[in-house]
Amino acid sequence: MNRFNILKLTQKVNYSTAKSILRNKTIKTLLKEDSTNVAVRGWVRSVRKQKQISFATINDGSNLKGIQAILSSEDAEKLTTGACVELHGSLIPSPGREQTKELKVDGLKVLGECDVKRHTTEFLRSIGHLRMRGNTGSAVLRIRNAASEGLRDFFRDQEFIMTNTPILTSHDCEGGGEVFKVSPIDTTNPQEFFKKSVYLTVSGQLHAEITASAMSRVYTFGPVFRAEESLTSRHLAEFWMLEAEIAFIDDLAPLLDVTEASVQQTTRHVLETCGEDLDFFNQWVDKSLLERLHKSVDKPFIRMTYTEAIDVLQKAQSRDKTKFQFPTIWGSSLQSEHERYLASDYCSQPVFVTDYPSELKPFYMRANPDGKTVGCFDLLLPGIGEIVGGSMREERYKVLEQKMKHAKMNMEEYQWYLDLRKYGSAPHGGYGIGFERLLLWFTGLENVREVIPMPRWVGNCKY
Amino acid sequence: MNRFNILKLTQKVNYSTAKSILRNKTIKTLLKEDSTNVAVRGWVRSVRKQKQISFATINDGSNLKGIQAILSSEDAEKLTTGACVELHGSLIPSPGREQTKELKVDGLKVLGECDVKRHTTEFLRSIGHLRMRGNTGSAVLRIRNAASEGLRDFFRDQEFIMTNTPILTSHDCEGGGEVFKVSPIDTTNPQEFFKKSVYLTVSGQLHAEITASAMSRVYTFGPVFRAEESLTSRHLAEFWMLEAEIAFIDDLAPLLDVTEASVQQTTRHVLETCGEDLDFFNQWVDKSLLERLHKSVDKPFIRMTYTEAIDVLQKAQSRDKTKFQFPTIWGSSLQSEHERYLASDYCSQPVFVTDYPSELKPFYMRANPDGKTVGCFDLLLPGIGEIVGGSMREERYKVLEQKMKHAKMNMEEYQWYLDLRKYGSAPHGGYGIGFERLLLWFTGLENVREVIPMPRWVGNCKY
């Protein structure tokens, strides 16, 4: 029997076969290689017809700019914006500044026509399911892909086990109205299938705590759901969360270290692999994008307690009486205007605000010795606001039981959660990153609907 | 401004920082390093108390066997199975055959007690949310993690873009009864939130086709849902699917190539990184496990058409009249007994069965020139049955329209899908891997409920 060697986890290896399985090459790869006679397949982005020779830009999604094709005016007549084509020809150095190589076409086949007599490019972009054919839509997808890779690489390096927390859950988050319920299609009795009421998860945290109680370091990366009725640029009915849970940490410091490192390493990965797309967003969407992304990986994030943050806000308020609309007294929630001031104006860098008053936070956060605050944090980003929330979890049975009763929880329904503190309870903590908000940070875009391929929000669920 | 170098995708790099962010080390890492004075944190798996010295096994989920601790009988008195502990001591070479190093304990702290006067290990394992503390439960999670890594590494290497197809969809799969519907918790009107009926996805394929029509090579890896009422060892209400969609392939051959390579590379990654866990399953669950996994990566998968498969089955039937319960005439579905014979007995290796009769397959599969079959395949594994299904998609507007009418589809609801064939239609195909079934293949376990952390099926949705 042919046995494989067992590789050690810390021995960094390249698992890749590096062998391309598909024979046809992407435009991105063709532009990097030294092939001369090539076939290009993609969609026509634009055609410029001139008397002698014509130009067309062909894109297959593998890069931002696609490839410039030079073709006879006769061939160019066959091309329309949006058409799917196959071009044969030779790759030659380009005299233009926009690209290093271009394709001199000697053969052309239209694979799928696109009637632009009636449909302009703008019209095509307005069709939801074609928006990924545009620069913004496709650049978002490449950055989304890279950000996902960066996060997963980080947790793999740090010996976290990926787990899949369930989407269907029997917890309704204590009757909060923003939960979706699930039932079979052909029944009026929603309890019929599972013999109980079942909901879509709003967070994988409690389930990830189960897994961390056996595997020590775990993360889950999946969709979560909120029946959020308000129309804002920050809320979706379905969005993606990265949630990490870590056993055997004793206080917030290592949790902040991991959070900071995970965001920074992901940012580095996006900077390293999506340069062209970031340049595009930097030029057209947010001129400060590259500068603030580089700053966020070059310098440590700021750390301050909620109490210090309140002090900063009060000083700003006393200098300028009309600065804030909402109160800045100890015990009050930090509003968007406060978070904005702290992250954008005061720190101008990502900032952790830690140790909020217990009364502002959920039951599971670990009580601090001061009796007033809990061991938790929010990570605020300049221009975005909160993108990460995390905390130490209350691991002491009696204290948690007390807090659950105080929060008027259904003790029977959550007995399993309390029981995790009975059978070998471990000190632990964790955090959740809102993936679409992180993508706003990476693109400069302002609405979360632009950074998810098929957004769902109140009143909207196409396809 | 400090600019990063743009790395090329085909230039294979190690994105890892390799720097450990958390100060405490996992047992897996400790056993590989040369540290002598160490701290170990984990859960007690077993304690053997003897007169002079005692032994305990401590596990933190990072490996199968944990670490053996040698301690005074006085210290051992403090330990119970399931307790969460912190041990300080020195790592010394072990005289035992089971491990190369063991921990000589000189300090001990119980972080979380576990009362085993009332609770045996068997009792703890019977508690659903503690089953990951056992060998099987934790080995499954490590293999699940490695299989997920292997799949993602493969698609990254092959220049696929990860996309997230939506979970909430307006398609009810033409009224099939096995769909869950979704509604806000506090309403009796299920159409209230989205202004239409919304369901949980049964497959991301149609949505992935949108993305492939812009990005060429895409994959999605997420949960899908079936309100499947029958209790079988192969069905869950919530399970994970890897779905890939590829533009610019013209026939089945390259699709089979990608499918085969993705399964083989994932298998290699699991073999390379989970040796200890596979040995465990090979010893206790399925003694042919390692042999068949190695064979499946050393030799190509078999490929036969449905028509050839029917011929094979008919010959087997004519040799032994009672071999099959269900008919083996051309046009009839392949039943489990047929699939089992083909994969386990006839091929004894993964086998692709291709080009099924059109009438047996969904509307979107591409019609073959023979007018009777479609360009599709199922991948059957010995002992498991189907784990992958895929096809070329019908990219011709008129042909697809015809097929949709024949299938009595709601044309208005699926107009967007038809329109993908109007605005630059590309030849394309794709496939979906049932992730839990793949994990049965990697573990030798027989029930999909054992390979997902928190299984949901009819009548069961705990936590």
What does this structure look like?
The structure is a homodimer of 463-residue chains. In chain A, α4 (135-157) crosses α6 (252-273) and α4 (135-157) packs across α7. Mean pLDDT of chain A is 91; it is low at 1-17. An eight-stranded mixed sheet of chain A has the order 6-10-11-16-15-14-13-12. Chain A has 13 helices and 16 strands. Chain A has helices at 27-32, 73-76, 121-126, 135-157, 205-215, 252-273, 275-284, 289-298, 306-319, 336-347, 397-406, 415-419, 435-443, and strands at residues 37-48, 53-59, 67-72, 84-93, 101-112, 161-162, 168-169, 180-184, 198-200, 217-225, 238-247, 302-305, 351-354, 376-381, 385-393, 428-434. Chain A is α+β, with helices and mostly antiparallel strands and 463 residues long. The first copy, chain A, is elongated and about 80 Å long. The first copy, chain A, folds into two domains: 27-118, Nucleic acid-binding proteins (OB fold (Dihydrolipoamide Acetyltransferase, E2P), Beta Barrel), CATH 2.40.50.140; 128-450, BirA Bifunctional Protein, domain 2 (2-Layer Sandwich). The two termini of chain A are 50 Å apart. β8 (180-184) of chain A pairs antiparallel with β8 (180-184) of chain B, so a sheet runs across the interface.
